[in-house]
């Protein structure tokens, strides 16, 4: 397995290195994307494909009276996220679980917001995963997707060639899939770097 394959599902030593790199490297994207997320201070948030847990930590700061949960199908990612957020876990404000977004291990109508940073590229069944996100969201809850590769730059094409199982989605594709799976009020945000942020309501 090439080192870049660890972007999809981190494993082993290379995976541990990758999740640490992600925590640093994805911060500018998260800084940009978080401006489009409005979540109550006592809200309940789920971070799907939580990687190294840096965004869980930032969501905990945004919801000082709330809870944040994370889910990832990589054992390496789960371990790193738990280590980064161990204080909040001890306090009962955070939990990080291993599992698939296509079959979320949470009760229906549980979250005010669900976030997905740099991860929907790798979800094997996007419609089913979006239906699961809708299921666990409260009525009126928001789903935020944030990707560095928005599909408008021809240079984006190189990444699926290097990383098996990666698909880059354009804003129109994500909007159509979200609406087909029960979301509404889809908003598209882009910047001059080619980054894409999509928000939708249940």
What's the number of helices?
8
Query: What is the end-to-end distance?
Result: 38 Å
The helix-and-strand class reads alpha/beta
Quote the beta fraction. 15-25%
The poorly predicted ranges are none
Shape: globular
Main sheet overview: 7 strands, mixed
Strand order of the largest sheet: 3-2-1-4-5-7-6
What's the mean pLDDT score?
A: 88
Order of secondary-structure elements? HHEHEHHEEHEHHEE
Supply Rg: 16 Å
Got a strand count?
7
Helix content: 25-40%
Can you give a write-up of this model?
The protein is α/β, with parallel strands linked by helices and 202 residues long. It contains eight helices and seven strands. It has helices at 12-25, 27-33, 54-62, 75-84, 86-90, 126-136, 158-162, 171-180, and strands spanning 44-48, 67-72, 94-98, 111-117, 137-147, 184-190, 196-201. Strands 3-2-1-4-5-7-6 form a seven-stranded mixed sheet, sandwiched between helices. The longest helix has 14 residues, at 12-25. It is globular and about 45 Å long.
């Amino acid at each position: 397995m090439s080192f870049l394959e660890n972007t999809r599902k981190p494993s082993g030593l290379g995976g541990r290195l990758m999740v640490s790199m992600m925590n640093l490297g994805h911060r500018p994207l998260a800084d940009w994307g978080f401006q489009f997320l409005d979540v109550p201070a006592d809200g309940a948030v789920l971070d799907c494909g939580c990687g190294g847990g840096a965004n869980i930590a930032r969501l905990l700061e945004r919801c000082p009276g709330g809870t944040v949960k994370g889910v990832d199908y990589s054992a390496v990612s789960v371990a790193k996220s738990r280590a980064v957020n161990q204080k909040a876990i001890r306090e009962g404000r955070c939990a990080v679980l291993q599992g698939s977004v296509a079959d979320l291990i949470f009760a229906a109508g549980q979250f005010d917001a669900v976030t997905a940073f740099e991860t929907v590229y790798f979800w094997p069944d996007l419609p089913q995963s979006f239906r699961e996100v809708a299921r666990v969201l409260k009525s009126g809850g928001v789903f935020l997707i944030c990707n560095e590769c928005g599909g408008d730059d021809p240079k984006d094409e190189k990444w699926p060639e290097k990383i098996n199982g990666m698909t880059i989605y354009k804003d129109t594709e994500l909007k159509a899939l979200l609406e087909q799976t029960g979301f509404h009020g889809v908003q598209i945000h882009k910047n001059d770097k080619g980054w894409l942020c999509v928000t939708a309501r249940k």
